[in-house]
Write the C-alpha cells for this entry.
Amino acid sequence: MSTAQSDRRWAALARELEFSQLPELRRQAEGWRTGLTGLSALLAVLTVVKGQEQLSGLPEAAGRWAMGLAGGAFVVLVVGALLAVRAAHGRPGQDILLGGQALKEWTGEEIKRVRRALRWAAGCCLLGLVLAVSATGVVWTAVEPARHLVRVSTPSAEVCGELVTADGKGVVVRAGEGAERRLRTVPQGQLVSLAPVTAC
C-alpha cells in the first residue's frame, strides 16, 4: 500500500539515480572488462598450448580455417576488452569540468558513450565466443580417424594399407586410395611378416 512517505522516498531515490547512473555504468563496464580479458587470455593460452598439437592432424584447408577463426575470436575479444576499458575509465586527457551545467551536459553525453561502448563490448563478447566455438567445431569435424597402417609381406608380394582385422585365419587390410580402396585378405599360411608403418 502506497503512502505519502513512501512516495516521497521513491521520488528522492529517482532524483538520486540521475547522479549515480554514471558510476553504476562504470562498475558494469569493469565487470565486462574483467570477463573479456579473462576470455582473451584463456583463448590465447589454449591456442598456444594445444593449438599446434590439434592442428598438426588436420588437412591444410581445415587448419587454416581453424587458425583464422581462433585468431578472429582473439582479436574481437581484445577489441571488446578495450571498449569495456574505455567505458569503465573514460578517455585519457579529458578536462575536469567546474561548472554545474557543463558537468551535467558532459555526464549525459558520457552516459550515452558508456552505454554504446558496453553494447559493442557485449557484441564483441558474443561474436568472439561464436568464432571460438566455430574454430573448435572445425577442429572436431575435420580430424581424420586414426588409421593403423601396416605392411604385410607374402612370398609373392607386399600389401600396404589400413589394418582391418588380424586373427588365426589371416590378416585383412584395406589397401588403395579413394574409389580404388578394397579389402585384401592374406591367409595365415602365406604371411611372412606384418609391420606397422607411418605411410604407404
Summary: The longest strand covers residues 158-166. The chain has a mean pLDDT of 80. The two ends are 84 Å apart (CA to CA). The first helix runs from residue 4 to 55.
